[in-house]
Amino acid sequence: MGALVRIFVGCAFIGHALTFPAYAEGQDKKKIDLNEMVCRSDPILGSRLAKRRTCMTRAQWIEQRALDRQSIERVQRSACGTLEKSNC
């Protein structure tokens, strides 16, 4: 049982390091430029081939991620699970 717990904790730690590369070992010494442009290609829903390319600075990506998270939390807290005001 103890070995399973150690494996689970080890996997969780590795997953955390992979999810947040800035906190990964050896990355904390490098400075991250928040003004660096980063482009990302996201698939368009309903299409197998089309992709949408979005370019923003690292600071803008961080802000967008926070706004997305706030929207998700607001929907999860609402009584009906929608953004529209209704009486369910």
What is the fold's blueprint, element by element?
Blueprint lengths: L1 H18 L17 E7 L7 E7 H20 L11
Overview of the molecule:
The longest helix has 20 residues, at 58-77. A hairpin with a 7-residue loop joins strand 1 and strand 2 (51-57). This protein has 88 residues and is an alpha+beta fold. The protein has a two-stranded antiparallel sheet with strand order 1-2. The chain has two helices and two strands; from the N terminus they run αββα. It has helices at residues 2-19, 58-77; strands spanning 37-43, 51-57. Helix content is 43%, strand content 16%. The mean pLDDT is 77. It is extended.
Summary tags:
88 residues; alpha+beta; 2 helices; 2 strands; 43% helix
> Shape, please?
extended
Q: Report the average pLDDT across residues.
A: 77
Radius of gyration: 19 Å
The strand line-up of the biggest sheet is: 1-2
Major sheet description: 2 strands, antiparallel
Q: Tell me the structural class.
A: alpha+beta
Oligomer: single chain
Q: Please report the distance between the alpha carbons of the first and last residues.
A: 46 Å
**Overall strand count:** 2
Number of helices: 2
Helical fraction: 40-55%
Following the backbone from N to C, one meets helices and strands in this order, namely: HEEH
Indicate the low-confidence ranges by residue numbers.
none
Sheet-strand content, in percent, reads 15-25%
